[in-house]
Amino acid sequence: MVVPLNIPARLSRLTAPAFSIRVNGLPASPAFIDRLVSINVVLNNGEVSDQLSLVFDDRETFWGRDIAIPSQGVNLSVSLGYQALTSEMGDFIVNQVHASGSGGGRTLSVTATPTLLSGESMLTWGDESLSTIVSDIAKKYDLIAKVSAKLANRKLPVVHQCNESDSAFLTRLAQRFNAFVKPMAGNLLFMTRGEGSSASGLPMLPVVIPAQDVLSWSKTLSEQHDFTKVGARWSDFQSGIEQEVYMPPQKPQKNEMILRDSIIYNNQAEAEAAAEAKFKEVNRDNEKIQLTVLGNPHITAEGKILVDGLRSGANGTYIVERVTHSFSQGGFQSQIQAYVEPVANGLNI
User: Of the given ranges (5-19, 86-100, 216-230, 333-347), which has the lowest mean pLDDT?
Assistant: First the structure.
């Protein structure tokens, strides 16, 4: 899917912001829409669940009755955008309802999250590809597995899932391969971080954010650790010697600070993948940007954005870590936290 350039700038001048909500597969009732005050959709990068928050005006009805409280377990499907074009934000299950009041009136807040992979298993996966493992787990939740082409055929000689939830197990695997895992729009995504993939698993071009769409922004550069290299060990069964690989791959200098992975991997390829993943993890906070922009439903966690027209040092391509899409009477805005993909010796790895 090719992302059109400057969608908010064009559509916000031509059409008004718009949304749609389905409740258990059916369009939300007029009463539901009439009392809705605000919508907040938080899309995270897989380490934290996405979240939907709805706020309602909880005043009594014309007949002096309270409005119906949404039930826990109800499925909510949300789309945001503009009258000319809306995009699906995902499916969410209601898990919390909060009512409050004061002299100024009453409000009702509803919080929902996507389907959680909470089932626990005790299994040993032997000589299976990542694609097979993710697909088998996805079937348990009626989801379709979407695995990055770079990772789909990676085989794991032996991996144990010992009384561990499917979510925790897949997250542990994802961390070894610089990947993220999350259920989204009927799919179970297992994608390389920074790849810039849609909910269908297809690659996306960066979403362009021109200066005229930016309401506010800030850029942060920092060095938060003393490690310049990551090491990972693996067992060489032919020689019987424990080997170590590094990222960046050059041999360490004397007195160089090395962050060593505590796991001993089965082969060199697994160790190299783990070292790369850990290197990117510890360097991900070095260069970050925060933006509030005109609402753009195409911006999603782990997607790419291309910022243009701000200033040197702030312009460029970023990976979205978290985006909050907010819709209310004040309009449609997107708040973005994003980072620059870490590099080793000037090479993007």
Answer: 5-19
* Spatial CB neighbours of 196, under 8 Å, sequence gap ≥ 6: 203, 204, 205, 206, 302, 303, 304, 319
pTM more than 0.85: no
Burial (CB < 10 A; 0-12, 13-18, 19+), residue 282, is middle
Burial of 86 (0-12, 13-18, 19+ CB in 10 A): middle
Length of the chain: 349
Label residue 81 left, alpha or beta by phi (over 0 means left) and psi (-120 to 50 means alpha): left
Inter-axis angle of helices 166-176 and 130-140, nearest 10: 160
Instruction: Give the DSSP H or E segment for 171.
Output: helix 166-176
List, for residues 276-315, the tens digit of each pLDDT value: 877 877 777 778 999 999 999 999 988 899 999 999 999 9
d(CA 281, CA 206): 22
Helix (H) or strand (E) holding 12, with range, is: helix 7-14
Report the C-alpha gap between 178 and 190 in whole angstroms.
10
